[in-house]
Amino acid sequence: LQDEETRKDYDYMLDHPEEYYRHYYHYYSRRLAPKVDVRIVILVTVCAFSVFQFFSWWSSYNEAINYLATVPKYRIQATEIARQQGLLNKTKEKGKNRRSKEEIREEEEEIIKDIIKNKIDIKGGYQKPKIYDILLFQILLAPFYLCKYVVWYCWWIYCFTIKGQEYGVEEKLYIIRRYMKMSQSQFDSLEDHQKETFLERQLWIRENYEVYKREQEEELKKKMAMDPRWKRYRRWMKNEGPGRLTFIDD
After folding, report:
1. Beta-carbon neighbour count of residue 28 at 10 Å?
2. Which residues form the signal peptide (predicted)?
3. Would you list the DSSP string of 5-27?
4. pLDDT tens digits, residue range 181-207?
5. How many CB atoms lie within 10 A of CB 203?
């Protein structure tokens, strides 16, 4: 009875002994209630998820580097840069420091991967992870991002709505990305020539984008119509699909 709330429940029980089930519920609800602060549980959960998120991104980034190291286009360029910098010549040593072919091959592979990491800017979901992108820092920096967005939005209204200025390249690409309903990482992963096509066709204008969207939908329909796998699927849906009932005589 050291707790004030418990003493109140005890006094109420003495005054109302007939409310047995209510006393029983309050007793066990207090006894079985978690003793750990909910804020600590939330903090530990966010930290654990952030650590998992960061290492998961690193794994995806390394997978992308390993894949690019197998693509002839990037591998040849990286090998040529390594030769120009004299990095591959260092791997072939003689005398006591001579190593096996397997060790030399592994070191050359690491050199090529390092050059690819430094020379190629990987964008999208496989880009190099940044610590400020994990959940923990996103929550901590949420007020800053909110203020930044409010300032940016006021600037947008003032420049393009009130003053009627023309859009720059970045503003045009931003409007196009919003029309396409793509995230920033998804849009960044597009090739530069695709973005140039968007600008040439003036897709920041709503009417032009609607025309482009219909063209893409028609092109997709044509590809699906010519795709053998899609043809087999349609044939299966027509002949043996889940909506067809058959009665076979034994």
Report:
1. 10
2. none
3. HHHHHHHHHHH-TT-HHHHHHHH
4. 888 877 887 888 889 999 999 999 999
5. 24
Closest CA to 79 of 106, 116, 118: 116
- pLDDT of 231 reads 64
Tell me whether residue 225 is exposed, middle or buried, using C-beta atoms within 10 angstroms of its C-beta: 0 to 12, 13 to 18, 19 or more: exposed
Both tokens of 216, joined, read: 């893409």
**pTM value?**
0.57
Structure tokens at 129: 């992870």
Nearest to 91 by CA among 114, 110, 77: 110
Q: Please, which pLDDT band fits residue 110 given cuts at 50, 70 and 90?
A: confident
DSSP 8-state symbol, 162:
I
Alpha carbon of residue 127 to chain centroid: 10
Cα–Cα distance measured from residue 143 to residue 147, given in angstroms and rounded to the nearest whole number: 6
Residues of the chain above pLDDT 70, percent: 68
Distance CA 69, CA 116 (A): 7
Distances (CA, A) of 66 to 75, 106, 126, 127: 11, 13, 12, 13
Angle, CA of 219, 222 and 228, to the nearest 5°: 135
Q: Are 92 and 104 in contact (CB under 8 A)?
A: yes
- Whether the CB-CB separation of 186 and 127 falls below 8 Å is answered with no
- Total length of the chain: 250
